[in-house]
Amino acid sequence: MTTPSTAAGTGLPEQTRPGAHSTDGSALPAAPAELVERPGPCLPGWTAGLTLTAATGGIVWLLWRAGVLPAEIDGRTLLPPPPGGGSASGLWSGILLLAAVAAFAAGGLTRGRNGSVWVLTRHGAYQGTVRRTGLIWISPLLTRRRLDVALRHWRSRPIDAVDANGTPLQISVLLVWRVRDTAKAAFAVDDYDRFLREQVEAAVALAVSRHPADDFRGAAPTLRDSERLGDHLTRLIAADQRPVGIEVFSATPVRLDYAPEVAAAMRRAQIAALDAKHRRAVLDDVLATVAETVRGITERGLVQLDDYERKALVRDLTVALSTTTLPKK
């Protein structure tokens, strides 16, 4: 399993946050306290555009002064002859300098998009995060990495797990999440997406082991309560992802099945349990009807019954009603 590591190039040692634990109960390494998202250096794109325009204009003017630009094309005069004076070396030095300025201005132009940010580094060290949208300018001396911070959802493949009774299960989970702290997500782990997926599998294995998938004998909590199981999974996964800058909104079980090797046997047990529950419900209704009938006869004084006759009446009514209401196997 991928675990949080020291941020590359930061020179900061890993620290363990008191009270932070992974899904298996062990201490969860936390990102360095200094590794927190902060605004990165950038300028509005129009400033770089003005600089690029001015540098280009200066280059054209110096080329004209140097006599490089043609004065006529097809007999048409385009430019007046350049004035004399000025050393050629000085003109070409100015051209090279302005060309470097223009290249520097053009090389930093980029576009910020909704739902994504630029994470900036220099020699592997974190320099900040740019969340601005539209045309912006970022120094070409900084390395850029685009990071997706939009709300995302991921449906897992069927995850193998075992319930409290030791019965093998397969569970699929729908996870809704996003990157909240880009510095931690980029540097606290090698691959935050892989780390998230593996922690989801660990959380599912832990949460599923707390309760049985089905309770055929009573009304104890089971894994069929999707809301309870989803809340438990959300808390487990959110606690594990917080140190690496990921915010988890919900983890919902969307599919819970028995493993193929036990599915047929457990399906028969489910059907038998449902049949038994239905028969108990029908029998309870029959007994309630018999009791109400006998009580009505007695209260109205229709007949006088001794204990033997009362028992016989109860038996006959129970047999008659059970024959017509209880399902046949």
Cα end-to-end separation: 51 Å
Mean pLDDT: 80
> From the helix content, strand content and strand pairing, which structural class follows?
alpha+beta
The level 1 CATH classification of the domain at 15-35 and 173-256 is: Alpha Beta
How many E strands?
Answer: 14
Low-confidence stretches: 1-21
- Tell me the strand percentage band: 15-25%
Order of helices and strands: EEEHEEHEEEEEEEEHHHEHH
What is the global morphology?
Answer: rod-shaped
Total helical segments? 7
InterPro entries: Band_7, Band_7/SPFH_dom_sf
GO molecular function: peptidase activity
Keywords: Hydrolase, Membrane, Protease, Transmembrane, Transmembrane helix
GO biological process, one term: proteolysis
